[in-house]
Specification:
This protein has 8 helices and 12 strands. The protein is α/β, with parallel strands linked by helices.
């Protein structure tokens, strides 16, 4: 049986020593790596090398990491893990809000990073229960990964879409944050359950339809917080 090709990982960091250390650690684990040192080189590297995942430093010269993240999210859903020396909560939240799949604070422990990479790569992009799910004002097309609310398309990050697809597949079931980490993110060892809280908050802002909102006569609140337990997806009867 032929050996599957090594998955390529792009490392974008201005620290040459760190790039070398991470490259060596990932190659030992069977990945193929290539690197860039400037923010303005990331987009071209992504287009030409087609990596399976990007490790993105926030402190890149020329174009800052957060701006690189925004640019990439406008054009696709490449898995992205931020690697940063910034340990401020605001930076972590902003990175997630802009669409990062994970956030790792320096100094980086190679074993932890490899675990996080594998978990992100295992995420269920084919998780969708049905090709198309029509829930009245909410319309989910899993083949194109598009979501429409009240007839208008809404842009979700890759992980927001995965979370919504899982919830749509399990209406009226209550899930704790820990369970959602296991089912949607695929890991719990290194991840804070607050990750689920933040992604759920952003998802709600995008899909909840208020009464009287354009495109919806009655409105609908899809995600219910079950106090002390977790979250429940309350969907109307499928069309």
């Amino acid at each position: 049986m032929a050996t599957p090709p090594a998955q390529p990982i792009l490392i974008a960091d201005d620290d040459a020593d760190l790039r070398e250390v991470l490259s060596a650690a990932l190659q030992v684990e069977g990945f193929r790596t290539f690197t860039v040192s400037r923010g303005d080189a990331v987009a071209e590297a992504v287009a030409t090398q087609r990596p399976s995942l990007l490790l993105l430093d926030l402190g890149l010269p020329a174009v800052p990491g957060l701006e690189v993240l925004k640019q990439l999210r406008r054009s696709g859903d490449l898995p992205i893990i931020i690697i940063s020396g910034r340990d401020e909560q605001v930076d972590k939240v902003l990175g997630l809000e802009l669409g990062a799949d994970d956030y790792v604070t320096k100094p980086i422990h190679p074993r932890e990073l490899v675990a996080r990479i594998r978990n992100v790569l295992r995420r269920g992009r084919d998780r969708c229960p049905e090709p198309i799910t029509d829930l009245g004002s909410l319309y989910v097309d899993c083949s194109s990964r598009e979501v429409f609310v009240g007839g208008a398309e809404v842009e979700l990050t890759a992980k927001e879409f995965d979370l919504l697809a899982f919830l749509v597949d399990h209406p009226r079931q209550v899930f704790s944050r820990q369970q959602l980490l296991e089912q949607v993110w695929g890991d719990t060892e290194y991840r804070d359950p607050a990750t689920v809280t933040e992604h759920m908050r952003r998802l709600r802002l995008k899909i909840e339809v208020e009464d009287g909102a354009a495109g919806s006569a009655a409105g609908h609140r899809y995600v219910t917080t079950v106090r002390g337990v977790g979250y429940r997806f309350d969907a109307p009867a499928r069309v």
